[in-house]
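It would be a great kindness if you could assist me with a short task in structural biology. The matter concerns a single protein, recorded as an amino acid sequence and a row of backbone structure tokens. Could you please explain, in whatever detail you think fit, how the structure tokens follow from the sequence? Thank you for your consideration; the sequence and its tokens are set out here:
___
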Amino acid sequence: MKAISYNLLAWAILPFMDTIAKYLSAELSFFQITWARYFFTVFFTLPFMFFFFRKNLTMSTQPKLQFFRGLTLFCANVLFFYSISIISMAKALTLAFVAPLITTALSPIFLGEKVGFRRWSAVIIGFIGSLIVIRPGFIEFNLASIAALGTGFFYGIYLVITRKLHTSDSPLLTLLLTGVVGAILGSFIVPMVWVNPTFNQWSLLALMGIFACLGHLFLILSLKYADASKLAPFGYFEIVTNIMLGYYYFGDFPHYWTWFGLTIIVCSGIYISFRERTVLLVK
């Protein structure tokens, strides 16, 4: 029960970070917002680890994988923050939910896992769900929708790399290194789009980093008490907070086609998750 509680709490917190990012995107570049998300994540995570988990501040056993993990999550964040600056958070998140399907499609190549007919069918059905959400040919298929799908693509790769890392480096070290990689990459780009934030904007950017820290901390705590495959379906709870915040602050409520596509994508993802659990139990 602890694992589920921590996991649900994480997915309830993280959409607050997205809400702040969407609000700030009216006046600040999404690149600058992405940089701040990473900078303040490291700013708050490093002292926390130094005082409470100093033994985890060691060299990574797989630095190249850590870099690519950080790179893929950075790309996913940039694309997602861009997409929510244009379209609703609910639609962007729905399209980003193709990530588990991408992970399933890539796992035979990068992880050597066997993916049977049923799971491939779930991937295809999930992709059809994403087409229902964007409805190309019926509504304008804009760059923001492509960016949201790109978020899911990069996050799917991120999940594959995370699977390869979970037996080597500690989760807290991985969290810190992911933040460091993102902060460094963002620091190369942000001078080109920099706008001096006001005090209120700085406060919100810092608050965004706090939400990111808390959300990922609860995710790590949940994984301490249960396997990732058991907790994966609960990740879809994020859409609940996302829709509530999007409607309250921006007046965005998902179109019925978005609900239909979301249902298909979520069902496909949950089916894949339970198939993975079944395979693990058989092994």
User: Anything to note?
Assistant: Residues 83 and 143 are 8 Å apart (CA to CA).
